[in-house]
Design a protein that fits this description.
alpha/beta, 23 strands, globular, 26 helices, single chain, 637 residues, 6-stranded mixed sheet
Amino acid sequence: MQISKVRIQNFRSIHDLIIDFAESNVFIGTNGAGKSAIVDAIRIGLTRRWGQRGTGFTELDVHRPDEGGDPKTLPPVTIEIHFREPSAGAWDADMVADLDEIMTLDGGKNLISLRVTAPWNGDKESYDTIWQFLTPTGEPLTGKAQRATNLTGFFKYVPVFWLGALRDAADEFTPSGHWGRLLKNVKIPKELEAEVLKTLAEIDAKVIGADKRLSDIAALIGEATKVAIGEGLGGARLNMLPLAIEEMLKRSGVLMRHEDLRPWLPLDHQGQGLQSLAVIFLFQAAVLQQLAEVEEPGTEAVFVIEEPEVHLHPQAARALWERMAALAGQRIMTTHSPYFVQHVPLRDLKLVRLRGGRSHVSCIPQHIHSLLPWNDNVQKFVDGAKVQKIFSRDPDTGCVTTSEWFGEKLEDNLVSCFKDDADFEAKKGLIAELRHRSRYLPSAEEERELGFHGRRVRGEIFFARRWIIVEGVCEYLLLQAIGRAAGWPLDNHGVTVIDFQQSGSAAVYPALADAFNIPWDMILDADKAHINCRKQILDRGYREQDLKDRVVLHPKDYDLEACLVADGHEKLLREIMAEKGDKSNLNCPLEEFISRLRNRKTDYASSLAIKVAGDPELAKTMPKALVELIERLKKEG
């Protein structure tokens, strides 16, 4: 069984946070946003044995809305972890029977809810830790459900394996680390053990006999036995090799090399990146062994891994996701790496942001649910149009749900399924609202497109505070230059510029921004192409009021090049283009020159951006839409 939902209250930077969980969950965001607080709440809630002295939370864990708050009088830390059956009968029957006393039913599906609280106990001068299993409405179960044996039995089915960001190969590859726990289960046949020990004794004798000084050293040390009182003659001999298989295993280590031509070297002689990766795979091996020893049907691991990409170069960070996704169990991770994020499915990302001193989480939902009843006409439409991947029947409510955004044509098809209903107009409104709310959901094609075209921007954009969405690289370069000239570099203020023509579409980035609660602005040319861009956004389910004050056009019917010329920069642009090697740009007809600019956008824009970045006065004369946006953002801070 897997975690379906977590509610965390009054824990560190978290005031009150409810998070839905999937099989893979990757928490991203800036430092201090609360990612570690989220995973720590889950790890602590599912690994400690509550009620024992010295376990639980401290006053440093209590959320304080301001510096003057007293943790002892503030509301206590509360963590609720819910496990909900994905479909009726999906959980192992033996596990359900074993956990019957803490299992409840919710909408025909099994549910287990655990609440952990840590109120201050003035008499004990410490925080009590209280665990409770809950009803579907959040009330504590009573009677046998609160027996300590239930908690132990519950933990048995939800083993949590945690790997922190500050992992150290020197600690993990030791007898007390994961390495030692792996080796404890190594079984050597008795016959082989005897043969190995005999061979070791022979080699040991040869080594010692190779130099008389070794025998002399042993004889001198053996004099100690003549001083000590014993029942007979003693002595000493040197031991160069292990005396037992257990000792040999304890001395074992790992040698690695990057390629065939490189020498084998101990792990501690390798770089930090390779050591970090080795720890991850050691961790995986230890977990697999532990799970193999568990014979309880229904047991499913929860992996909590912080920053798996630590110390890795970009290519390795990108490749690592595939290995993390292959872990057999529920995966909860944090990362700061835009390279690691590039391969993570969009719906697995959970963006953590700090607002007003409190952590907030935004993500793309798996589905958008409606109150629209599923009927035979809907079933025929879905089967006939082969849109099962988009529309489905919610098993809990029997209503229409969607997993992707859908356009006006599919909206019309859905509407026709209810044309004979008495409340047709009401259902038509429900369909329009469903389409509007589904605009956040990327299609499978968009996922692929962003994965291919958006590799350059895909990772970093989710770490930004704000997005500016533009058509091409020219606007990208000029916005960066204007910001620098104004003393407000965009990167320093968490603003990312996305040029969608090279990495997606006009509609997908506004949808992603809204799904992750990232403010956005869009600047478009005023030529005929902008009509198509606007149509893409509206067809996705946006309404005109959604775009008000967000989408800005260049004046008249100008594109960027025409706008620059109209703003008085013809002479400067001709000089820039002439410097590129073609002097005819200085005097060719204006229409032809503008056409050349459009055909060599990067050439002129890169040079113009350099001049603009170093000249604040020139920057102020750039196209009004670009300048006014930077001025507004700078004013807003």
